[in-house]
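Appendix B: a complete holo record

For completeness, this appendix reproduces one full record from the ligand-bound portion of the collection. The bound molecule is flavin-adenine dinucleotide. The inputs are the chain sequence and the ligand SMILES; the output is the full three-dimensional arrangement of the complex, encoded as structure tokens. No fields have been trimmed.
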Amino acid sequence: MPYDAVIIGGGLAGCSTALQLARRGHAVLLAEQSTYPRHKLCGEFLSPEAQSSFRRLGVLEAVHEAGASPIDQAVLTAPSGTGTEHALPDTALGLSRYELDRLLFRRACGAGVDGRPGTRVTDVQGSLNDGFAVTVGAETVEARLVIGAYGRRGTLDRHLDRPFLDQRTPYVAFKAHYAGAAAAQVQNTIELHSAPGGYCGLSPVEGTRVNACWIGHTDALKEAGGTPEAMLDKRLRQNPALDTRLGGLTRVSDQFEAVSQVPLMPKSRFAGGICMVGDSAGMIAPLCGDGMAMALQTADLVSPLASTFLEGRHSPSSFREKYEEAWTDTFGTRMRLGRWIHTAAFRPGAARLLVRSCRVVPPLARWLIRTTRGHRAQRPGHRATAPPPAADDR
Ligand SMILES: Cc1cc2nc3c(=O)[nH]c(=O)nc-3n(C[C@H](O)[C@H](O)[C@H](O)COP(=O)(O)OP(=O)(O)OC[C@H]3O[C@@H](n4cnc5c(N)ncnc54)[C@H](O)[C@@H]3O)c2cc1C
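The structure of the chain with flavin-adenine dinucleotide bound, as generated:
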């Protein structure tokens, strides 16, 4: 049976798009190469904006029931350990990707999506004009639309010869869950600690655990001895505030999740006719803590446009133009600001200046927090037109 849409990748962007298209009556196949539940590298800080998407999807209550931890304070420290603390404009949440991705995938399947965990998409041929043939596991299926929701970087990008691959990025990132006496100090708070060669975020997740996630330069990893523990101990813990915090925490994850090549450069929204969402369309600097909300927002942006295209009310070119325009309008400013803050966090002098400025001029901190969430970027004409709120339908 031909599908209306094949969605590649069952992270936040893929599951949300699949769920929304299925609710609009489309036949959707959602392929995820991993099985659920599984740990995934992420800071696991869900900015307040993510909750609007959860509410629209009808999963907010389930997210709370999964144990999401409320977060209403942000602490930023310079490499010297000097810090500045600010209230978040709204309550954010901390929930592991182990719980969150499984929850969303189940919801998509519950809405009629043909969800296939443990299934990798290896090839896509065709166009928006003529339709696609997609290699899904051992099978080839036909679809009118293919959505790329496969994250920041994948082998499909290589097949599609996407230009962003020409630029190497010298970053590695790790994450693990911790527990211990210091977890109480991190409750309700996201902490971002800058250090020579990288930065580390600490935030609470379900079960009184703390997620520690850090990103650094590959040179910092090599110089420290090549292991995540060594990078944390020898480089990042040079920040006394982070050192104190980690002194009261013990790792409870069996292993570290790791990624290399974190691509923060601009990307295209379409490649080989595939419509990209989430990190596949563009990744915001991790320090902004907004990647998951953006992944959900791209799903909110693309779903009504894709549905209109599938109903024959948008031509392929009009679908492309409208999505491109809506994406740039919604995310352009925060992507640029995110790259700037990320660069500053890697430079001790700039990080010190940024923290000091936020201490002395608190409105600056509030402006940064709001602008990296896109509050200035949205214009009324381009707000996401998501489906009406759905009742929790577990
Ligand atoms: C160090 C670091 C810290 C971060 N911290 C935060 C944070 O605190 N808060 C926040 O909001 N964001 C954070 N982010 C960003 C956030 O993790 C991403 O923006 C978000 O996960 C994007 O969701 P996605 O659905 O686009 O992609 P993903 O969540 O990466 O999902 C893509 C999925 O596609 C699957 N896949 C890949 N290729 C294929 C294939 N060929 N076939 C089938 N399946 C495939 C993968 O297995 C994966 O499950 C962080 C990122 C990094 C690197």
